[in-house]
Task: structure prediction
Amino acid sequence: MPIKNYSTIISVERTISQIEKILALHGANAIMKEYDGAGKVTAVNFIVDFIEGKSIPFRMPLNIQALMEKINYDIDNPQEREGRIPSTRRDDMDYARRVGWRIIKDWIDAQMALVDLEQVKLIQVFLAYAYDALNKRTFYEILEENNFNSLPLLE
Result:
């Protein structure tokens, strides 16, 4: 199966703007972007009021290295997928950013559709991305560091 949005030509800036609009329409009262040293967006952070004046920060990162590795793998192994990523895209980080942010935008949009239908709560779908700014880790990263010991795991 091809990488979702592998043929996108939509700029990162436009996609990030669409992400911000989706988040704002669903209750985000603050949105911030993180950048690498080259001025490229590496994460979108947002804050949502939860209950009784309490707010929760969330962090949606783009793991550009993992995505670039997957793109390069797909270029080297075309028999394993339907879509054809041109070999000119090898190590093309701008291309990977366009694809990656587009995938994140689609995922956020789909999650918000479930929120709109009252199938889930916003915090429910974004909980793994709840962000501890002091320690610079998401809830998922904290759980992972503790071997998920605080979860009711089956032996």
In short: The first helix runs from residue 12 to 25. Helices lie at 12-25, 64-76, 93-116, 122-126, 139-145.
